[in-house]
Structures are given as structure tokens and as C-alpha cells.
Amino acid sequence: MAKPSIGVYGLTGCAGCQLNIINCEDELLDIAAAVDIKSFIMAQTGNVECEIDIAFVEGAVSNEKQKKQLLDIRERAGLLVAIGTCASWGGVEAMINDVPREVAKKDVYGDTMKDNPFYDCFNPMPLKDVVKVDFQIVGCPIERPQFIQAVASLLNGNLPLLPTYALCTECKFKENECLLIEQDKFCLGPVTKAGCGARCPSNNIPCEGCRGPVFEANYASEVEIMLEKGYTKEYIAQQMSTFAGTISAEDLGARKLVKTDIP
Amino acid sequence: MANRKITVDHLCRVEGHGGVTVELKDGKVDKVQMDIYEAMRYFEHFLKRVPYDQTASIACRICAICSAVHNIVSNQATEDAFGVKCSDQTNLLRRLYVAGGNIESHALHVYLLALPDLMEPRYHSALHMAQDLPDVAKIALDIKKCGNEIQDIVGGREIHACNTKLGGFGRIPKKDELKFLRDRLEKTLENAAATVPIVKGLGIPAYLKSENTYVGLVPYGDKFGYMGDKIAVSDGTVVDVHDYLNVTNEYVVPYCHAKYSAWKDKPFMVGAIARVHLFFDKLHPTAKAVAADIGYKPPIHNSLFNSVAQVVELVDAIADSIDVIDAVLAEYDGSPKDPVVKPKAGKGTAGIEAPRGTLYHSYEYDADGNCVGADIITPTCQNYGNMEKDIREMVDNNPGFSDEDIHFHSEIIVRAYDPCISCSVHVINLDKQ
Fold first, then answer.
1. Which of A101, A120, A155 is the C-terminal boundary of a domain?
2. Three-state SS for B396?
3. Which of these three, A155, A183, A201, is where a domain ends?
4. pLDDT at residue B375, as a whole number
5. What's the pTM value of the predicted model, to 2 decimals?
6. Beta carbons of A222 and A168 less than 8 angstroms apart
7. A233 and A196 both lie in a single domain
8. Which of A56, A248, B39, B235 has its CA 20 to 30 A from that of A70?
9. Domain check: are A94 and A197 in the same one?
10. In the prediction, which pLDDT does B432 show?
11. Residues A85 and A209 sit within 8 Å (Cβ to Cβ)
12. Predicted complex ipTM
């Protein structure tokens, strides 16, 4: 049987999720032996854009060229896996999605680049807003063990099982002192998807929500606690949209988290 | 002679999305330009929204490969603005963390990205090379892994640190973690030495002959290193880091949304080759011995030797990290020793040497600590002008080159600079005069 073919692609982002694939130092040679890497521009030359079994796509979609590229990848790929928070939720670049890109462009470049097609881009979108995404591995960047687990599951014909609960759970397992309740720090652990082993709180640094939202969370309660602790609603809204500015009511099965929604 | 146009559509084995176009008229180079395909992310907008104590953690998302240095220099720029002084322990651990990033990045670039082209036969990637030379690939990956282990233990994560903060660290690594890293570094030093014969045998082309102008931060103290507050130019000029704009002299080109830099109207080069050129005497004795073994002795003006300079730096970073760990352990204190961080109105600037060259962060804050202005200048931006100079020279000095040759050599020249294209377009420039 032929080895499954894969492609690794990057749209708008920092290349950190692709780098974390290359960072699988102990497993990389085994992965490369188990699959046929048709395209991985960051890691190899001689890339071929053909039909592939699995596409791993990093980054948000933020211009027409990327939209076309993503549609093309979807067309060629059996399974499409979004890797990282940008591909899943838009990432930090979507933090300003409440402002049209034109405003941002003018603020940065003035009118000098108005007619330059290089600068044409729209508000960054997660992949799922453009194509069907079969699976998401979240994280800023993705955790290496989860990538390896996902590859192993997919090679065996299964969809991977990754945590669907809140990061708070992992933090409790570690018996860390609660930064939110005990130290009044702004910690997003209760509403962020688990899987990193509560890295930041384990270092006495509050969770910034870089893994994106978790579905089964009590957002209203988190907001209430934050307001009680004296954080303003603007601050709460800003923090909650730092990594997931594209979050929607449907995504959460809860009400939309925009500034005006917070009491 | 016919006019020719050679386009490298998508540079492979570099970070980010970019290409190169070379145009020849009557056999002579008419135009060389870098094509950058990265979409804008407008970091300048989000930094205005981000609280000052998270600026570094968001700014480091500009780029994964340079994440460690973006994080530290961002914190240092804010500390400069607020007048925060860090403890000796913090400064040592930052030195170790930055070295970890450098070890990882240099190992990645030299062995995995640059090497496959310079071997005989050539390979599409390190993974293809591994089929013929599994031991080389394993050693290279293990060196790289050691850099990640340092970043993971000291910085909290291999990419995008979650243990760093204004004034220092959230958690000080335990003694046994530092001892583990020390053992790993000893092993990594042996591994790096084992790659010397390969580095010696690389077929590095010799067609780049013009003199480069080199720029780099003067390392603090007597040792080679990546932090300092003075900028040195190879013509002897020294400039305070707060006056970095007098060195970078940025200008805009119509075909690329990264800004270019020039020193006295000419391109200059930053990165490993520049640092080793400027501060060779400060290198760790172990690194000097490796340089002598390879036959690397500045002045060297062939930019393609940047990858070899990275090997010398790699050895320096490993050997120095062992010394740093010994220094931390000698006066070990498990508490973070946080200085008081209180926002105040004003401007702060810091520079750091990223694996690929000098990186500057500069912020302006209001009295409440809201970011009202930011400027970030990345090394790859500073190098674009010199890359174009080198590609021009490659074509001029090789009149017999076919389109395919020019394509191939343009790619290895750009790759030798270890460019970080994500960084280069996410230039932040908020200062409105």
C-alpha cells in the first residue's frame, strides 16, 4: 500500500505551528518515513501540489490569494486539518476585526499605499469560514504531542481525541494555587480549551486564552467574577478577543461576546 | 543579447512567504527585487489595545523562530520606558533563554535549511538527506532539541514563552532542571563538534567578493553575546541604541511592503557573520578553537559564509550557556525577585541580537501605561538591500549562468541570510511626526 500523502501549508501567521512540526525532533524522521510529504514549503524544495490524503493548514485567511489557495487545497485534500489558533479562530491578527482593514491600513501607512495591490487584505478569517474543516488542533502554537497524536490517529483512520474541557481542569490537576480566585489576577483558564497542561498558570502567569474558547464554559460567570474583581467591561472584552476575535454566538452556543453584550 | 527575467516564485526552506525577481538587459543585471507575499497583520493596531504587561507576549507572535528575542527585547523596551531594573539572576536567565533560542534557530537554519543545497549531491530537504545520512540528521535534530529544551524550561514553552514577564520570570527553574540542561549542553557541545568536518567540506560558492558593511550590538562585558546598548558599525562608528534610527535610516520601496535600510546610502548586513566579524575577540575559547579548525577567520565578506559563522556562534552559545548555568547555580535563589513595575509616561527602546541580526523595539506609553506609539525594526528588513546587492553581484560575476543557475543561486543567497519574512513585513511604525 502506498504511504499516505500529506501537505503542510501556511497562510497568515507566525509559522509557529509549522515550526512546532519541525520541532518534533525525536519523531520527525519517523513521521517522514510513515508519510509521503508532497508539499512543505518551509521545510523542503521540490514541492508538488497534487492530490493529498491530509492537508495541515496553519494561519488565518486574510486576502483573496490565500482564499483561492485554501479552496485549491480543500479540492485536493481528503482531510483538511486546521493547525493553530489563527487557522481555528483568526489568532491575534483578528483582535482588531471590529475595525475595517482599511482603517488599520490608513493608520499605519497613511494614503501612500492606497492603490498598491500588495496591501489588499480583509479581516482575517478562520479556515472554517471559507472551507469545510475536518479537524482542528488549537494552540498558539499547537502542542507537539497533540500533533503527533493526531497524525497517529489519522494514519489509523480515526479522528483524534483531544481535550474538550477547560484549561482550569488541567490547572486543578496540577494543584496550582488559583490565580483568579486567590490572587485576583485576570485568568482566562475557565473559558479556554485545555491541552497545554496549564502552562502559564503553572508559571504563576495568568492564562491569556491563546488556545481559544472552550464550548462547555460558563462565560457569564467568568464575566461576573471579573466585574466583581474590578475589571472594566472593555478590558474583559479585549482580553476575551485577544486570540479569538472571530468568536461567534454559534461557536459558543452562548451569547456573542462583544463589548456591547457585556453588562 | 536577449533580455531575461528570472522569477523565484516561492522561496523554500525559509520562514515566511517571499520570492525574488531578477531582470537582465543585454546580459547585464537591470533589476533585482525581493517579492514579499505575506499578508499584513497590523500589529500596530493591536499593541495599542494590549495592556503593557502583555505587550511582550503579543509582540512575540510576530514570528515563531525569533519569538524568544522578540519577547525579551519587548520587555526590555517597556522596562526602559518605566525605569525598571532587573536582578542579576533575571539577566543571567534571560541570557540563557536567548541562547536557547539561538541554538535552536541556528541548528535549524544551518543543518536543516541551508545544508541540503551545499552538500554533494544536493537534497530537497534535511528529511531527504536523512535517508542517506541518518547520523547527520539525528545529530542536527538533537542539537536543535537542546535549544528547545532551554526555551521550554526557562521560557515555559519552546515557542512563545509563557514564563517571561516585565521585570523577570514567573517561575525560576529548579536546580535539577538547570543541572539537566547543563548535562544536555555538554552532550550538545560534543554533537556540535562532530558536525565540524561536514561544515568544513561544504561547497560554498566564492563569487561574492565585494566588501560588506557590518552592523551589530556591542555585547555587554567581555563576552560575546546578544544583548547590549551600543550599536557598532564596521567602519568604526558606535551609536547609542536609543538613536537606532540613525543607523537603520529606513526607506520605502514601491515593490515590497517591508522597509529597507541603509548606512551612508549603502546597504549593510546584520546577523552571525556581522557579529563574528565585529566581536571575534570576545568569542568563547571553545568557539574560537572551532573557528580555527574550520578555518574561519574574519574579515570574511562572502555573505554565503553566514551559515558557517552561525556554527561558530552555535558553539559559543552552547559553551556560554554552561558557564551561565554555573553562575546561576553558584548564587541560586528560587524566588523570582520581582522588581516593582509601575507605568509612567515616556518612551523606551531596546535592541537585541536575533539569530538573524539586530532587532529593535521602541514604545511610547502614556501615564497609565497605554501604548500610544510603537516601532519595531527587524533584522531581515535591514538585510534586504544587501541581499539585492549580492544577487546582482552573483549574476554580474557569472556571465555564463543559465536561468536555472540564477534561480538556484538567488535562492541560496537569500537563504544564507536566514531570513524571517513574517517578521520583516510586520514592521510597526506608529510614530507620527
1. A155
2. helix
3. A155
4. 86
5. 0.95
6. no
7. yes
8. A248
9. no
10. 32
11. no
12. 0.93
